[in-house]
């Protein structure tokens, strides 16, 4: 009896655990997953710094002069610039020129903005008509106000982005331990395949599955390894599969059904692979196979383009996300859409209908749903799951559609 899609998903994910960590330069952590708890190496900022161009002052001096009704005139003593702090402490009645990001001189506790002052040689005259309240800390970013030494910056499982590069680099981390990216070997099989750029004749087809799968592998956060194409020759197939088993994941397309030329399953078993599932109550993708060795997870996907796309997204994508350390549900996201036309079911199999978005909350099933139809791959940005036993969902029905981010609807060719 064929497994349901849900049962197959569960079996596949039971063989997925995050891969071991590896240290990489902090500049390369974008889109990677943290593998350890990291702490700040020092306070951030390290000193009290100005957030304005102006003058560093002692707020008490300004308050006293203002309270007496006197003009606020201070003696300018030194300058503090970013990267070049002043070494001269401020005494009573003194101010220091200061730039944004510069360290406050010893004794200063506030900054007056440049536009509230007038400079006459070494005298600073403060405009009391525009000067607002001046208290300790005005226009100052205090030491440790962002981070204290030892504060947690990230924990295992956190997805890292460009902002984390700045945070971690600025807090003392030149290298960062992240979950290693899965290596995914991709092998296309069949005597009918011809290379990209070759004009096919007769029963030949251009070998495009590997290109599509490599793109999907990258989007899942893994690294593709192209094994090219192999004919239906047992020895050549065995050698190619043996090479693929050195990767974390091996994905093959074609040769997994029950015909005389479907050799992949037998060759995998001869190489020691243990079959976990073979056949799913699914359209397209019924012959899908999943097997494992001690070090490799193996997917035998159908050779038809739509079948390989759908089965990759349903089963390989979540496994790769889990291996890469992604937390939570690794499957494709879903959203509710209303059908603008009927969607046909597939009898006793769950049918994943390719569709295009029409706005945020509606979708149009594509008219062509054959497994080998390339237009339905390029035109789809959603998959509509039609339950087994349902002959048709009518127009107006609401479906929880799987969102295919790689295929935005605005690029979809019209049939």
The low-confidence parts are 406-415
Number of domains: 4
Query: What is the CATH superfamily classification of the largest domain?
Result: MoaB/Mog-like domain
Radius of gyration: 32 Å
The CATH architecture classification of the largest domain is 3-Layer(aba) Sandwich
Helical/strand content category = alpha/beta
How is the main sheet built? 6 strands, mixed
Approximate shape: elongated
Strand content: 25-35%
* Percentage of residues in helical conformation: 10-25%
Written description of the protein model:
The chain has 415 residues and is an alpha/beta fold. It has 4 domains: 5-19 and 181-323, MoaB/Mog-like domain (Molybdenum Cofactor Biosythetic Enzyme, Chain A, 3-Layer(aba) Sandwich); 21-44 and 149-179, Molybdopterin biosynthesis moea protein, domain 2 (Alpha-Beta Complex); 49-141, Beta Complex (Molybdopterin biosynthesis moeA protein, domain 3); 334-411, MoeA, C-terminal, domain IV (Beta-clip), CATH 2.40.340. Helix content is 19%, strand content 29%. The protein contains 8 helices and 28 strands. Strands 7-4-6-5-9-8 form a 6-stranded mixed sheet. Strands 16-13-17-21-20-18 form a 6-stranded mixed sheet, sandwiched between helices. Helix 1 runs parallel beside helix 7 and helix 4 (209-219) packs parallel to helix 7. The radius of gyration is 32 Å and the shape is elongated. Mean pLDDT is 92; it is low at 406-415.
